[in-house]
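2024-03-11 09:14:02 INFO worker-7 job=invfold-0412 stage=load source=structure_tokens
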């Protein structure tokens, strides 16, 4: 496994700003971090053919895509009075996806 990739993913998870409420800049930053995570996970997916890595990357990608979709909804409803989404709708799936991938790095 690529230790640089896992180090970068760990750092991205540590830097994920999930407590910045109603801040469009924070949402934009989380989206950028999720895009970086997607690239790194796809790199792992294509560089390792083992079945458990393939399954883990597929599941992690689903969670990251879910986080990106939630970020879109959150951004669209940022100024809405009856908004039902919160930052955990974005950060929950992002953290879940990162945890799945980071668990592959158990040595």
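2024-03-11 09:14:09 INFO worker-7 stage=emit residues=107
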């Amino acid at each position: 496994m690529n230790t640089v990739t896992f180090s970068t993913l760990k750092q991205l998870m540590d830097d994920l700003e999930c407590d910045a409420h109603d801040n469009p800049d924070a949402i934009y930053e989380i989206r950028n971090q999720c895009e970086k995570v997607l690239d790194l996970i796809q790199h792992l997916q294509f560089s390792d053919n083992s079945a458990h890595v393939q399954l883990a990357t597929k599941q992690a990608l689903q969670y990251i895509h879910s986080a990106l979709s939630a970020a879109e909804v959150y951004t669209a409803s940022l100024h809405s009075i009856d908004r039902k989404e919160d930052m955990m709708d974005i950060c929950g799936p992002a953290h879940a996806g990162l945890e799945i991938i980071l668990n592959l790095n158990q040595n």
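2024-03-11 09:14:09 INFO worker-7 stage=report msg="The mean pLDDT is 85."
2024-03-11 09:14:10 INFO worker-7 job finished
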